[in-house]
Amino acid sequence: MNIGTITLFIWGTLLLLLLTGFPVAFSMLGVAVAGYIIFVSPEALYTISPIVFRSVTTDIYIAIPLFIFMAAVFQVSGVGDRMYTTMYKWMAGLKGGLAIGTVAICTVVAAMTGLGGTGTVTMGLLAYPARLR
Fold first, then answer.
1. Cα Rg of the chain (Å, integer)
2. Which whole-number Å values give the CA distances from 98 to 10, 18, 111, 113, in the listed order?
3. Would the pTM count as exceeding 0.85?
């Protein structure tokens, strides 16, 4: 089977599941497992567990709870509000300035932490109150 057919199967199945209202995480998981069974072999499913375990137990993930704690401290201390006030003033003339500021702050936080996911969680905690205002 060529790569074009496999790609069409994956995107088509994922799009179909998403259009029916199935949750994104379970849609992606279902397509991955179905593709693995169809295109590799059912016996190859035994290789998924060690791969997932190895990727989840990487040392870099130990710091994630501390970065989430840092985001909570930023939120409670008011640092997040001051960052957003500064970004709002800098980007006030632009359409969608607060969203652009959020992306800029998220980029800086992700660069400081080294993980994009921690930047996303941090900015989720900090951005929600500021964007509601």
1. 20
2. 36, 29, 20, 22
3. no
